[in-house]
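Hi, here's the filled form for the chain we discussed.

Project: internal
Contact: R.S.
Residues: 346
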Amino acid sequence: MKYFIGVDVGTNSVRAALVSDIGKIEQTAVEEIKIWNSPAKEIYEQSSDNIWQACCSCIKEVTKSVDVSDVKGLGFDATCSLVVLDRDGKPLAINHDGENERNVIMWMDHRAWEEAEVINRTRHDVLKYVGGKISLEMEIPKILWIKQNLPETWQNVGHFFDLPDFLTWKATGSLSRSVCSLACKFCFQANDQERTWNDDFLCKVGLVELTQDNHQNIGNVVLNPGEPCGQGLTHESAADLDLNPGTAVGTSVVDAYAGCLGTLGCSTGISSIDGGSSPPNLDKDKCVHGIETRLAMICGTSTCHMALSKEPLFCNGIWGPYYSTMIAGYWNNEAGQSVAGKLRLN
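And the returned structure, exactly as it came back:
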């Protein structure tokens, strides 16, 4: 039997599943992760070290009863939180306390509202891909906040990662990024003709530094979700996970996009998914046929309404269109209610 591992890093916890090559979920594990918050200031922070440790714990738990040579690959999805590292790949403080452990500005952190307003006043053409206005929950306003408020951190920054891309870097050592994270949260420009950073946009919003060294700090190798990342697990990460070096790692996706991919791809023509002895009948044409007529509603800490199209659709107040962020060759649009699930939990 061959196995694959899926890791989902949500707002409050890490979840892992061991899945067989016939689509049966064999084992699952969950571990909570830390959150530092100041609700009055709408500040929410996490630790990339703590998140990685939770990933390691969950992966080791789901694989403890199988031969690791039978584990053929793993993939990550995560919230679109901003991870900040120094030039040596070490955590770098994103707070006035100088606490390097707290190096993740969570997706739900609203400290960068003034920076978002500054960006929106540019009325740059890039903004049409985020519904006409950038959200303070996206990464560019947060990076601008760091530049304007934490000069020591800004001087020592080596890498800005969306959390899903941090996880593949931690696993493989590859600095590649997913087009899913970059297009959806960094205002990266992708279409059927090219993939590129818009330097005019970055300069006009006050982040010319991000254009230097071929955009080294924010990524210059961009892959589709699921493409092989680096050379698989490094020796160091394999030791952390109790897996074999070189085990394949897929390029990541944002968490809601992973859920949407599974939801929109559902087909009544799939058989043997309940643990039969033969592989499921995964007919690609059946899965994709009619996919543009479907709407996925992904419910978690937030509720995301997501749809796909073959042509770009622009609508004020609706994020996107984003190209190939879920399925290659398709455009994605996204709307919903931010933090709706968090409010319910409270």
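Let me know if anything looks off before we file it.
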